[in-house]
Task: structure prediction
Amino acid sequence: MRAALLLTCFNRKDKTLSCLESIYSQLPVKNLELEIYLVDDGSTDGTGDAVAAKFSAVRLLRGDGSLYWNGGMNMAWSAARADGFDAYMWANDDIDLDPDALSVMVHAFNEGHDDCGVEPVIVGNFCETDSGKHTYGGFSVKQTFRGMATKRILPNGQIARCDTFNGNLVLIPNSVVEMVGMLDPQYTHAFGDMDYGLKCMKNNIPMYITPEYLGRCSRNSIKGTWVDSTLPLAERYRKLLLPTGIPPKEYFYSCRKHSGRGVSIIALVKLYLRLLLPDFWARISRKESSK
Result:
């Protein structure tokens, strides 16, 4: 398999370099020929120059700071597609990969292919650095009258089907890209990865999570974000509207796209309730997750 690994970064030089080191330290991988495409989206901490100096084989692309995750990944993807690959692998630059992570991805791809008879999407699982609790991976999806309900699928030693996924480490065959395309350009930062999984689900494309955790990737702290109840409401609202928050226009678009207009209005109301009552919403979420 000849694959392009796609990343985008912004002002996380140490994490970006560490991620690239964890990838290159695994090469060569049996049955995998890998080339890396990295978009540095206007970093001011010298990330791009540091990557160019230490990893000269990386195809380095430059953004102006307006791309964020979705735009940066599409820039890298477009460049890689022009060169032509059998598959494309998304990766976040904050993942800490185990030494055999890429081998596990390839093995899971072969297992999935044997199971379903076509080229599947493979989703890597990640856990917290300290606690080992599940953080990112695949989800099952169920449509309800309140909107789309997702449930995390935990690894159990075998590949397992999922309905959508987080984009921390995902292997996507070119056959899938030919059918589904790239990330929806309507999104700026959030939503793009889950949206892509839902598009795959609608096209009956099989998706599997890896049988084990492939490394660590801790959840981002809510401190200083739009759900931080210590901040004034006006400040939380400002942060909600940022590309790194939950832009209501993009959120409404996503909900309408996958659940219909009526449900999307309910979802938008819930979003503003969460903004107004973050502590109450957090308690409700904890109760739901504990069931």
